[in-house]
Amino acid sequence: MSLSAKDKKTVKTFWAKISSNGETIGADALSRMLVVYPQTKTYFSHWKDLSPGSAPVKKHGATVMAGVADAVAKIDDLTSGLLSLSELHAFTLRVDPSNFKILSHSILVVLAIMFPTDFTPEVHVAMDKFLAAVARALSEKYR
Amino acid sequence: MVEWTEQERSIITSIFSNLDYEDVGPKALSRCLIVYPWTQRYFASFGNLYNADAIKTNPNIQAHGTRVLHGLDRAVKNMDNIKSTYAELSVLHSEKLHVDPDNFKLLADCLTIVIAAKMGSGFTPEMQATFQKFLAVVVSALGRQYH
């Protein structure tokens, strides 16, 4: 299920529309993930406040979406483009890869909420494939 | 036995009472067929599914999407008995329709996204958690009679 030229174009076009909202998207997606999938909180036991919209959640949401923005720019070669992020996730963070799907779903829900007319089924499938490709690139170094 | 708080019950009834089944059902089903094209395997007799526009305007898909939402309504009205409410439907999906039960989750995810688009920021993280819990129970009940 690799990204076709059409997928890449759809992702880039949609991203151009929404990227200025990156921080808000990230904060809402992360907030939702922590509430809807409480098991994900296990990765953030070092945070004082895990409630939706809290300072550490907002900050980390922005960090994650900056990573997604980087991935959009490197969409033609995610594996080498995201190499250092992949090493980070494999050796330091060691986030179980099942959580990439969970966060991807949370991001898609936020996109549907914030951009109901633009987030058509066609954009949805391209973004879902893209986020899955990013997840694959991030799990490259796991074993 | 699934436990529901009063708040969860009221969230579910409130979400469904504000839904136009004839709008949301077709939207969710057509989105599922577009985002997860392999699910089209179950709809070979429905006519033209060649591209996203064909899927979105296919009258059989629209009718079926509405039917699915009305089916969900039975779970809303029987939240304490979803497993037994869906026992027959589970047998149907297994023995007659031969649907891979993993597909139920795909449709559930698309329905969540359609509802999120409709409700906007009113679809709070808490409402999303309750809605997804409800759909997870439905999905589990539909897969229960497979053997």
TrEMBL record, chain A:
Q: Where in this chain does the record put each Globin domain?
A: 2-143
Q: Which UniProt keywords apply?
A: Heme, Iron, Metal-binding, Oxygen transport, Transport
Respond yes or no to whether keyword Metal-binding is given for this record: yes
Q: Name one Pfam family in it.
A: Globin
PROSITE patterns cross-referenced by the UniProt entry: GLOBIN
- Give the family this protein belongs to, as stated in its UniProt record: Belongs to the globin family.
- Name the UniProt record assigns to this protein: Globin domain-containing protein
Q: Which organism is it from?
A: Characodon lateralis
Automatic annotation (TrEMBL), chain B:
Task: Give all residue intervals belonging to the Globin domain.
Answer: 3-147
Q: Which Pfam families match?
A: Globin
What are the alphabetically sorted keywords of the record?
A: Heme, Iron, Metal-binding, Oxygen transport, Transport
Name the InterPro entries on file.
Globin, Globin-like_sf, Globin/Proto, Hemoglobin_b, Hemoglobin_oxygen_transport
Query: Which family is this sequence assigned to?
Result: Belongs to the globin family.
Question: What is this protein called in UniProt?
Answer: Hemoglobin subunit beta-1
Query: What organism does this protein naturally occur in?
Result: Characodon lateralis
